[in-house]
């Protein structure tokens, strides 16, 4: 049985194609301002990689901020539901899942059966999402991919006072003027965003294992700040960005099974 | 240097800095000369008052450190007056950098100074002052003497602040001083930008521009979102007339008119530069302290 | 004066409102020590009154500073010990 999950995020649209519990292909394209077109494009790319046609896919489930914009999806699932599903598939021992994407952060807790018992979503504020790191990378005049490795070189914690991403940008600029090493600033940026994500985790209550998913989990600096702040080791998948799409594909498989 | 090689880019956020002197006053005849220095996160003002009358002021952008900004503003206010710091009987520092005004005799919070200054600028009937500054937004209620009866401040987030407006001026390539007027040149009021967060609002605006919206329509959508944000802050304490708006955003007719519309109350017409409220209040606190000392 | 410390965000209103006219008359200020997070401090305000204020460091995160506190009859410890009912919270 072949199914697919489409995760239309604020920044990227991700597709995972699943064949009998195995990932056949995945793809990501910029969501842009036409989410329907982006999902078509991502789907076509993934089908191409898998070497199959659209008709070979039995069920497609959409999730993410633009889940209702996917013209070819048969069903939808919430981001929280899909994220939990994907994370527990990869890490069956995970009880707390943190998912931080470009514009949204989520923390959820589930029981042994994988059922979500509590979750928290950040407040539509860039301070607790991936956009924060992007804005700070711009202020530091480095690529966002460099932020993580750079901050790992830091051994010193400098505090950041600003909560708001816009104010934090000015703070980063003053830190640069004050000759603060860039690695220490990057470290401070990750501590700042982690502290906000951690308060969300505390709200649902931390239970081990902790899994980090979503685009920000690629950032080793953020992962370190999370681990230090929560004093627990985190499970990070190889492709954290695709976990929610994977979860949607798993949901699709279930639906296809019901239909059969 | 790397910075020098970058192509020259217009700084749309930059507003006109200036100084002013009252030609009808001679400070040498004054009994009490006091100064108020408001070092904000974005702008700094120095005000000199002679016996409670406005004598001179300077309004400029805050530099990288508070002491230098305070000194520069004060020097510019005293320019061509023959006055030196020694002639000033008392100086009060206020604003975000108030404890870093090296020549100040005392620091007083901007909340108290805005109420006192608002009372001077708009008269004793003003009861609600909305201060929309560079990095914060304050809703202040005061009595007929300009004493604070309640206050509320948002400085956690750039939504509803001057900094948020600067981000938009830059994005759209419109001078910050023209944003308000331009935002009113729409035939029909668009839906406000839905994101409160300035970072997300910027992404949203980029999308609207790509969808073919003209700049004025995007500005209208942002100005009304900002007005809405501020009004929701005002709701907590209510708005009691007379109502006045101070700070840099008070000069933005696009935001002010939309706040008035949403509240159903007109704001008092300003007779002074709206950015001076804090510094004027500080100078008046100084006067009261000098007079108390003499008694 | 009603001093509102806190903020508004997507999740709601997070304000501690202190009636400093009631507070200025209180010599003990038991609220300060009742708070496990040291959110409150005694200050001299701009009108030379001895009042209680929310510390600067907590003003932008009140929601997280105050939420773990136990409630008795719906009141936080600082509210319970205040002899003048001068502290009101918005959530």
From TrEMBL, chain A:
Record flagged with keyword Iron-sulfur: yes
Q: Which domain of life is it from?
A: Bacteria
ATPase BadF/BadG/BcrA/BcrD type domain location = 5-252
Signal peptide start-end = none
Matching Gene3D superfamilies: 3.30.420.40
Q: Which GO terms describe its molecular function?
A: iron-sulfur cluster binding; metal ion binding
Q: Which keywords fit this entry according to its UniProt record?
A: Iron, Iron-sulfur, Metal-binding
| Cofactor or coenzyme needed | [4Fe-4S] cluster
Q: Which InterPro entries match?
A: ATPase_BadF, ATPase_NBD, CoA_E_activase_dom, Dehydratase_Activator_Redct
Q: Reply yes or no: does the keyword Cell inner membrane apply.
A: no
Question: What PANTHER family does this protein map onto?
Answer: BIFUNCTIONAL PROTEIN [INCLUDES 2-HYDROXYACYL-COA DEHYDRATASE (N-TER) AND ITS ACTIVATOR DOMAIN (C_TERM) (PTHR32329:SF2), BIFUNCTIONAL PROTEIN [INCLUDES 2-HYDROXYACYL-COA DEHYDRATASE (N-TER) AND ITS ACTIVATOR DOMAIN (C_TERM)-RELATED (PTHR32329)
Q: Which NCBIfam families match?
A: CoA_E_activ
This chain's protein is named: CoA activase
TrEMBL record, chain B:
In terms of CDD domains, this protein maps to:
ASKHA_NBD_benz_CoA_BzdQ (cd24106)
Keywords of this entry: Iron, Iron-sulfur, Metal-binding
- Gene3D superfamilies (alphabetical): 3.30.420.40
Q: Name one Pfam family in it.
A: BcrAD_BadFG
Known cofactor(s): [4Fe-4S] cluster
Stretches assigned to the ATPase BadF/BadG/BcrA/BcrD type domain: 36-286
Q: What is this protein called?
A: Benzoyl-CoA reductase, bzd-type, subunit Q
Q: What PANTHER family does its record include?
A: BIFUNCTIONAL PROTEIN [INCLUDES 2-HYDROXYACYL-COA DEHYDRATASE (N-TER) AND ITS ACTIVATOR DOMAIN (C_TERM) (PTHR32329:SF2), BIFUNCTIONAL PROTEIN [INCLUDES 2-HYDROXYACYL-COA DEHYDRATASE (N-TER) AND ITS ACTIVATOR DOMAIN (C_TERM)-RELATED (PTHR32329)
Q: Does the keyword Signal apply?
A: no
Which Gene Ontology molecular function entries are recorded, alphabetically? iron-sulfur cluster binding; metal ion binding
In terms of superkingdom, the source organism counts as: Bacteria
Automatic annotation (TrEMBL), chain C:
Q: Which Gene3D superfamilies match?
A: 3.30.70.20
InterPro entries reported for this sequence: 4Fe4S_Fe-S-bd
Query: From which domain of life does this come?
Result: Bacteria
Where in the numbering of this chain does the 4Fe-4S ferredoxin-type domain appear? 14-45
Pfam families in UniProt: Fer4_6 (PF12837)
**PROSITE patterns registered for this protein in UniProt:** 4FE4S_FER_2
Instruction: Give the protein's recorded name.
Output: Ferredoxin
């Amino acid at each position: 049985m072949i199914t697919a999950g489409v995760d239309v995020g604020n920044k990227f649209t991700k597709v995972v194609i699943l064949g009998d519990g195995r990932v056949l292909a995945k793809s990501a394209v910029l969501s842009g301002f036409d989410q329907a077109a982006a999902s078509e494009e991502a789907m076509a790319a993934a089908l191409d990689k898998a070497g199959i046609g659209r008709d070979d896919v039995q069920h497609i489930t959409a999730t993410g901020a633009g889940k209702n914009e996917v013209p070819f999806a048969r069903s939808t699932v919430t981001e929280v539901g899909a994220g939990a599903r994907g994370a527990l598939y990869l890490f069956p021992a995970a009880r707390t899942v943190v998912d931080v994407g470009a514009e949204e952060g989520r923390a959820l807790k589930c029981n042994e059966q994988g059922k979500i018992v509590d979750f928290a979503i950040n407040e539509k504020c860039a301070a607790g999402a991936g956009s924060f790191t992007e804005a700070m990378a711009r202020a530091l005049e480095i690529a966002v991919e460099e932020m993580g490795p750079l901050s790992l070189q830091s051994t010193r914690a400098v505090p950041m006072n600003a909560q708001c991403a816009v104010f934090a940008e000015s703070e980063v600029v003053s830190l640069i003027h004050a000759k603060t090493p860039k690695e220490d600033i990057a470290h401070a940026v990750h501590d700042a965003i982690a502290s906000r994500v951690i308060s969300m985790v505390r709200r649902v209550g931390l239970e081990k294992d902790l899994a980090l998913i979503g685009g920000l989990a690629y950032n080793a600096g953020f992962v370190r700040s999370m681990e230090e702040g929560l004093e627990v080791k985190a499970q990070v998948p190889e492709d954290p960005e695709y976990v929610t799409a994977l979860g949607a594909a798993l949901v699709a498989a279930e639906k296809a099974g019901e239909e059969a | 240097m790397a910075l020098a090689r970058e192509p020259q880019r217009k700084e749309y956020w930059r507003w006109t800095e200036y100084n002013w002197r009252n030609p009808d006053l001679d400070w040498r005849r004054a009994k009490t000369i006091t100064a108020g220095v408001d070092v904000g996160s974005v702008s700094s003002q120095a005000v000199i008052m002679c016996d409670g009358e406005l004598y001179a002021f300077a309004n400029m952008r805050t530099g990288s450190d508070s002491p230098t900004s305070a000194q520069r503003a004060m020097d510019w206010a005293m320019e061509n007056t023959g006055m030196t710091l020694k002639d000033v009987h008392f100086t009060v520092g206020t604003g975000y950098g108030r404890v870093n005004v090296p020549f100040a005799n005392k620091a007083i919070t901007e909340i108290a100074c805005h109420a006192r200054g608002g009372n001077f600028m708009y008269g004793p009937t003003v009861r609600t002052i909305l201060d929309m500054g560079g990095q914060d937004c304050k809703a202040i209620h005061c009595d007929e003497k300009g004493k604070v009866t309640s206050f509320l401040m948002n400085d956690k987030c750039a939504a509803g602040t001057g900094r948020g407006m600067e981000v938009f001026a830059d994005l759209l390539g419109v001078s910050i001083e023209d944003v308000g007027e331009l935002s009113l040149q729409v035939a029909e009021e668009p839906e406000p930008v839905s994101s409160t967060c300035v970072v997300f609002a910027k992404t949203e605006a980029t999308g609207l521009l790509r969808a073919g919206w003209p700049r004025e329509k995007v500005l209208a959508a942002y100005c009304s979102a900002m007005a809405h944000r501020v009004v929701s802050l005002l709701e907590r304490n209510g708005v009691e007339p007379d109502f006045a708006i101070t700070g840099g955003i008070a000069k933005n007719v696009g935001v002010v008119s939309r706040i008035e519309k949403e509240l159903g109350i007109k704001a008092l017409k300003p007779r002074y530069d709206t950015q001076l409220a804090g510094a004027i209040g500080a100078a008046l606190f100084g006067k009261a302290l000098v007079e108390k000392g003499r008694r | 004066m009603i001093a509102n410390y806190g903020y508004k965000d997507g999740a709601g209103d997070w304000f501690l409102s202190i009636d400093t006219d009631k507070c200025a008359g209180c010599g003990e200020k038991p609220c300060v020590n009742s708070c496990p997070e040291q959110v409150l401090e005694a200050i001299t305000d701009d009108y030379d009154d001895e009042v209680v204020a929310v510390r600067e460091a907590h003003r932008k995160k009140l929601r997280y500073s105050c939420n773990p506190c136990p409630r008795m009859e719906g009141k936080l410890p600082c509210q319970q010990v205040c002899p003048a009912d001068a502290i009101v919270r918005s959530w």
